[in-house]
UniProtKB/TrEMBL annotation:
Name this protein carries in UniProt: VOC family protein
Gene3D superfamilies assigned: 2,3-Dihydroxybiphenyl 1,2-Dioxygenase, domain 1 (3.10.180.10)
InterPro entries in UniProt: 3_dmu_93_MTrfase, Glyas_Bleomycin-R_OHBP_Dase, PhnB-like
Pfam assignment, any one: 3-dmu-9_3-mt
């Protein structure tokens, strides 16, 4: 089990968001829902305060903070994807009600930034042939959702 768990701050939709994320990532679950014991700035007694959940083996915490603090691209969650089917499934799930950005980034309906990245991209960009890597980078910069076939074509020249 991981020892570092990101905490995502929501106004009042922590449980809704956690359930949304768990529905998208295989092998995920809600681990615990903690309700307020007394009235707090985040809500009344017996309303959800914290949701602990696991996405694909990584622990997270969602907190109902009571007021909205916007997420930014300054921190994002990167998801390594084995193939195009996984890229498509995760991208489409997270983009539902959200906003596609560019270069594999998508902001979900709660404002959290995700990078949906095929494993092949790292291989292509780290190739010792700088011309191949540059072609891949240029191709990626033109994409919104990353396309492995297009990245591969750029890699091969």
């Amino acid at each position: 089990m991981s020892k570092i768990a990101p905490c995502l701050w929501f106004a009042r939709e922590a449980e809704e968001a956690a359930n949304f994320y768990v529905s998208i990532f295989p092998g995920s679950r809600i681990d615990h829902v903690q309700k307020n014991i007394v009235d707090t700035p985040s809500g009344k007694a017996d309303q959800v305060l914290v949701v602990n959940f696991t996405l694909a083996g990584q622990r997270f915490m969602a907190l109902n903070g009571g007021n909205r603090i916007e997420f930014t691209h300054a921190i994002s969650l990167e998801v390594d994807c084995a193939d195009q089917a996984e890229v498509d499934r995760l991208w489409n799930g997270l983009a539902a009600g959200g906003t596609p950005v560019a270069c594999g980034w998508v902001t979900d309906r709660y404002g959290v930034s995700w990078q949906i990245v095929p494993t092949a991209l790292g291989k292509y960009l780290s190739d010792p042939d700088a011309a191949k890597a540059a072609r891949v980078m240029q191709a990626m910069m033109q994409m919104v959702k990353l396309d492995i076939a297009g990245l591969g074509a750029a890699y091969r020249g």
